[in-house]
Design brief:
The protein is mostly helical. It is built from 26 helices and no strands.
Amino acid sequence: MDDNTTSLRMAFFIKQFAAANLFVVLFFPISGSTDVIAQGNDIDTAREYIKQGNSFYDKDDYENSILYYNKADAIAKILKDDALMYSVYIRKGLTYLLSAENQKSLDAYYNALAITQKMKDLDKEVIANSGIILVLKRMNQLDKAHKIASQMLKSIDKTSFKNKHNHVNILATSSDIYLAREQYDSVLSFAEKGITISKLLDYKEGLVDFYIKKGMIFYYKKKYDKSLTYLLDAQRILHNHDIKNKFYPTVNTNYFLASCYYEQGLYDKAIDQLHKTTKTLEEKDLIKPPVIQSHLLLANCYGAKKDFENALHWNNKYVRLTKNYQKDKDATVNKIYEKEAEKLEGEIVHLKNKHAASEKLKQYIFGGFIILALILIGFVYRYFNKQKSNKKVFQDLMHKIDRLEAHEHDSLNREMTKQIIIDDTKVNEILKGLDKLEEREYFLRSDCNLRAIAKKTKTNATYLSKIINIHKEKNFNDYINDLRIDYVLKRLKSDKKFRSFSIKSIATEIGYKSDYSFSKHFKAKTGLNPSYYIKKLEKQEISLDQVS
C-alpha cells in the first residue's frame, strides 16, 4: 500500500480514537445499581436516579441513562446543589460523547466547567476540561482543544492530582491532541512523564496507554521494530493484568501490531494479529471505528498475499460496517441490516445449488477484474504522465530558485512606465522602505497587511498600493504571496529540518493563517503541491548523498 493510502487509513482511525479515552470515568467511577427509587425532590432521590442512570450506562443503554441523569439534574437545580449538578453534568457529558451526540456532550461539560469556576474548585475544573478536550477532538476542533490542554497542564501542579493516577490520565488526554496535530515529539515527552509516574504508582492502565501511543508514533515515523517493542510491552500487560476498559487498548494494540507487520511484508503475522480481534467481537463492537478499520487492514493483507477471495470477503464486510457506522444506531437500522444479511446468505445457497449460475457468476467476476484492470492501467498511465509533468515543473522550479539565490541581494532597476501623481523623492523613500522590510522578512508575519506596511513606510494605503502596482507590477496580495513562496522555496531547499515540519506548521511559520491558503498560493505560483515539492527535494538530497 502506498503512503497516501496508509495515511488516510490511519487518519480515520486516529480521529475516532478519542472515543476510547474514557479517562473521565476514572475521575468519577460509574457503578450501577437497580435500587427502587423513592419519589421526591431530596438529595437521596437524586442520588438514586444517578445510580439508575449508571446502571443503564453500564448496559450501553445511553438513552435511558440520560433519562435518569436528567431527573437527577432537575432535583439538583431545585436544591441549588452545585456539587450534585456538577456530578450529573460530568456523567451526561460522557454519556452523550459515547452516543455520538457531540454538541450535547460539549454543552454538558461546559455547564460542569461553569459550576467549577463558581465553586473555585481547580480539581473539578481540570476534570471538566478533560471532557471538553475529548469532545473538541471528536469534532476536529484541534486548535481550541490544544489551547485548553496547554492551560490544563500548566495548572496541574496546583491540584491534588500531581504525580497521581489522574495526573497520568490528564497527560494521556492532552497527548491525544498533540497526536492528532502530528506533534510527535511533544507526545513522546508526555509519554515519558506518564510512564515514569505510572511505574511509580504501578498504574497498569497508564502504562498500557502510553506504550500504545509510543508504538503509534514510531509506526508513523516508520521505525517499525521500535514500534513493535512498545506495542508488545502493552500486549504483555493486557494479557497479564486486570485492566479496566480493556476492549479499546486490546483492539488498538492488535491493530498497530498488525500494521507494523503489514508494512514489513509479514502478512501472515498481521492476519493472525487481526483475527485476535475479529474472533472475540460481539455485535455491539461492530460499529466501533478501530474494529471497522481492522476489517479493512485484513482485506489489504489478503490482497497483498493475492488471496483475492478473502480480500473481497473482508473488504465487503468493511464496506457494510462503514455504511452501518454512518447510520443512526437504532432498532430499525439493526433490522434492516439483519434482513440484508439473510438475503445475501439466501443468494449464496442458491448459487451453490446451480452450477451453471455459478460459472456465469465467475465469468462476470473475471470480466469485472478485466474492467478494473483497464481502469487501473488508465489511472497508472495518467499518474505517470502527471509525474512526468510534475518532474519538469520541479526542474524548472529548481532553476528559478538558483537564479533567485544568485541574485538575492541585487536590486531591481525598472524604468517607470506609468505616471503617478506622487513626488519622486517620496516614491524612492517608500521603495527603500519596502526593500528594508523585505530584508527583515517582515512579510513572514501573520499581521503583515497593506495598512501595516503603509504605516511602516510612512505613507497611506492608497499611495502604497499604487506604488506596488507600478514598481512591482503586481497587486499587494500577489506581492506578499510571491515573497512568501519565494522564501519558502529557498528555505525548504536549504533547510532539512524545515522540510520535516507539517504543512500546517510551515504555513504558520511563513505568515499564513491556514495550510489551505498556503497550499493554494504555493500551487498557483509553482504548479506543484508543497508535499510533492518536499518529497522531491528529499529524494534529490538522498541521490546526491549516494553520489558523493
